[in-house]
């Protein structure tokens, strides 16, 4: 198995799950599936990243300030916490995004670690070639993270059994996956997971 792969768990936060401020239909269904991926990558000694929206109270991302979204995942709030059933390992690398009040920052690759190092730089320092992406949402943060990953020169595989979309317009998630694949990403499920 290659040591050049990493798992990217995108935005499994309370506000995006049922009952949250920006609930994704059936969003919590990805948690047990992602836990299987986390266990698999952890056993192989491969890096695991968990991204989170980490918005300031005032941001152009929110409706009240010109955006399209209700208030969600405000820094330090309960809604910004990871889903309690998500089993992240102790050595998980947390990537925060959406902190700039003037930008949406859907892509995880626009985020940074606790030291402020941008995610692409962290990946390159670790020698990562391929990123496996699952989480929320298919049609926004998963899509933009996948496309940005490709643009940055990484190979990308989307975990289709571990993503859910918000689908503001019916079919958004299907179109997002089609766009991701057309751009050069691969897709897999846990049963067909393989490493380069």
Describe the secondary-structure layout.
Elements: E1 5-10, H1 30-43, E2 48-53, E3 93-97, H2 119-125, E4 130-136, H3 138-151, E5 155-164, H4 172-182, E6 186-188
Parallel strand pairs: 1-2, 1-4, 2-3, 4-5, 5-6
Largest sheet: 6 strands, parallel
- Write the CATH architecture name: 3-Layer(aba) Sandwich
**What is the CATH superfamily?**
Isochorismatase-like
Strand order of the largest sheet: 3-2-1-4-5-6
What does this structure look like?
It is a single chain. The protein is an alpha/beta fold and 196 residues long. The chain has a single domain (5-192), classed as Rossmann fold (3-Layer(aba) Sandwich). Helices cover 23% and strands 19% of the residues. The protein has 4 helices and 6 strands; from the N terminus they run βαββαβαβαβ. It has helices at 30-43, 119-125, 138-151, 172-182; strands at 5-10, 48-53, 93-97, 130-136, 155-164, 186-188. The protein has a 6-stranded parallel beta sheet with strand order 3-2-1-4-5-6, with helices on both faces. Helix 1 links the parallel strand 1 (5-10) and strand 2. Helix 3 (138-151) packs parallel to helix 4 (172-182). It is globular and about 45 Å long. It starts with a strand and ends in an 8-residue tail after the last strand.
List keywords for this structure.
6 strands; Rossmann fold; 196 residues; alpha/beta
